[in-house]
Amino acid sequence: ELKEEFTRILTANNPHAPQNIVRYSFKKRAYKPVSYVDQMAIHFSLNGNMILKDSDEGRRQSIRLNTAAEKAPTETSAETSEEAEIKDEEGAGDTQATGEEEAEESGAGEVTEAEEAEEPPPPGVKEQKLANQFNFIEQATRTLNNPLRDKACQSEPTPCKDFSATANQWKIYDAYVEELQKMERSKEKEKPKAQVAKKEEEKKKGRKLTSLDLQGDDITKISRAAKIMERMVNQNIFDDIAQDFKYFEDASDEYRDQQGTLLPLWKFQYDKTKRLAVTAISWNPKYKDLFAVGYGSYDFMKQGQGMLVLYTMKNPSFPEYVFSSESGIMCLDFHNDRPYLVAVGFYDGNVAIYNLKKTTPQPSYKSSAKSGKHTEPVWQVKWQKDDMDNNLNFFSVSSDGRIVSWTLVKNELVHTDVIKLSAEGTTMQGPEGLQLQTLGCGTSFDFHKKIDYLFLVGTEEGKIYKCSKCYSSQFLDVFEAHHMAVDSVSWNPYHLKVFISCSSDWTVKIWDHTVKTPMFVFDLNSAVGDVAWSPYSSTVFAAVTTDGKAHVFDLSINKYEALCTQLVVAKKKNKITHIQFNPVYPVVIIGDERGHVISLKLSPNLRKMPK
Amino acid sequence: AEVEETLKRIQAHKGVIATMVINAEGIPIRTTLDNSTTVQYAGLLHQLTTKARSTVRDIDPQNDLTFLRIRSKKHEIMIAPDKEYLLIVIQNPCE
């Protein structure tokens, strides 16, 4: 094995060169061996820096060498990079080269070369600092950067308030209305008229009063809402009655053959009037649901205080207004044009006017013994039209036989005797030959609706006198009406000649004032307390008797009998005193001796209108 | 005063469960119910009243809300709005 011969061949091939280089050919899409392989092997390489003399670089260098020879001998660098060349030039060119400048100039090396080539004459003054490649110090300086400080200033934010609102149609309207009112007020202030000034003062006072009221108690502001609420609560409680009042019509009337019924609705009562009897009832001419009740006593022995109470059908549980008085009230009347004025007659003979707009429980104006009050209880009062000086006046009739006209002159009641009821044939011979005339006692009166001066007076003796305002001593006519006191007389609202009268002698009589005898006589088996014509028909009237019954008559249907006789209050303990028709609704109110007022609805049969 | 009496009378009526007085911002001033229920009622009903009033007046600016009644199965809520106050009464109508 040792004798094996190894041939050694000397070739020019590079033993390290790979022999199987393969190249990928895209044409053939395969790897193809490359036939020729580079066989060159480099053993040593050295970059030289010898420049051809005649080339550009060579010429430049030679020029530089010549200039540099004046300044300082420059040494050709032995480094191979171009960057080193540039650094060298820079080091030769500047004495105080900063780092920044170097960085700049390194990018523009050739430019600086050219510049420096041009610069030879001026820098000749400067002294060049020698800098060599090998021992080379770079010194950089840096300016002090002042420390930065933040200074900020902030102003106070303007106070902001969030405001949001919706512009509704009605807000715009409200704003306009306010504007209007302001303008009107300013216009009023401009007017120099005295009357207007007075009104303004009143308005101002009124305004001041209202503002004072509001400032007082917080709760009082809610008074209106509380009132409405109370009515609503009552409506809920008395819901079925309210429904009856509005909608119930007694269907059984068809079968009842002309008879009718009275459906009881609300019952009005007030604590403080429990012991008092209802002495007068009247509906308010303006507000059809408001009525006034006067309380007093018919009993001669039991005379106490009196009350004037106003109820509304909208609130059956509590009165709207309450006024109290020392003496029992016997009669009352609402003023037609000024529905807030109520004239009242007392048992002690006084008369008074109550103003509902004022909140004091005392009457606004009151008569007294000095101003000519009656000496006996006042049985009836009635308002008249304002006289020529626009003063309010009303009439009163009393048992002392005088019919007096009271006029409100400058806040005082002034009386004028209109007529004295002299009973005929009763002149007596008094002492010393004086002729005394006993006076009849008036118990009720009524004025004619159309003929202003004509009125009727009923007396305790049972006579009815027809009188005129113009004649003060003589009557126009006398009717021998009843055997006992005439409790009520009333003209028919439609038939101008007819009037009705009722009396404690159990009868109700209908008269024509031109005829001395009554047209109709009704016997009701019990003393008749009150009689009233209905406002909707000329033939319907109602009467109440002391046995607790209410009778309703319709002359067009039945001339002899009542259409309805109904027991309204408990028989034994209670007597009915008064009855009134509501001018608008088919309701009657009946007052009794216990201080209760009962409202009843008339059934359809009782409400028939005449043809 | 008189108003106090009226409110007392309302409360004493048959079927009235509660009475409340609320001011213009929905804060109860006077109540006969417990606090939490009152506050709840006050907030809710105040919003409802404002909405109702807005509705009525939008249709006709000269009109204004006088009364609001909500009848539910159990009882009836009655609201009487005023210029600055709201009076609420909850009643059980007798049926």
UniProtKB/TrEMBL annotation, chain A:
GO terms for molecular function: dynein heavy chain binding; dynein light chain binding. Residues 67-79 have a biased composition (Low complexity). GO terms for cellular component: microtubule; outer dynein arm. PROSITE patterns: WD_REPEATS_2 (PS50082), WD_REPEATS_REGION (PS50294). Coiled coil: none annotated. Residues 65-127, 184-209 are annotated as: Disordered. Residues 184-204 have a biased composition (Basic and acidic residues). Keywords: Cell projection, Cytoplasm, Cytoskeleton, Dynein, Microtubule, Motor protein, Repeat, WD repeat. It is found in: Cytoplasm, Cytoskeleton, Cilium axoneme. Residues 80-92, 99-119 have a biased composition (Acidic residues). Its main location: cytoplasm. It holds the Pfam family WD40. GO terms for biological process: cilium movement; determination of left/right symmetry; outer dynein arm assembly. WD repeats lie at residues 479-512. PANTHER family: DYNEIN AXONEMAL INTERMEDIATE CHAIN 1, DYNEIN INTERMEDIATE CHAIN. Part of the dynein complex of respiratory cilia. Belongs to the dynein intermediate chain family. Consists of at least two heavy chains and a number of intermediate and light chains. Interacts with BICD2. Interacts with CFAP45 and CFAP52. Interacts with CFAP53. This is Dynein axonemal intermediate chain 1.
Automatic annotation (TrEMBL), chain B:
The keyword Transport applies. It comes from the Eukaryota. GO terms for cellular component: cytoplasmic dynein complex; microtubule. SUPFAM superfamilies: Roadblock/LC7 domain. InterPro entries: DYNLRB1/2 (IPR016561), Roadblock/LAMTOR2_dom (IPR004942). Pfam families: Robl_LC7. Residues 3-91 form the Roadblock/LAMTOR2 domain. Belongs to the GAMAD family. This is DLRB2 protein.
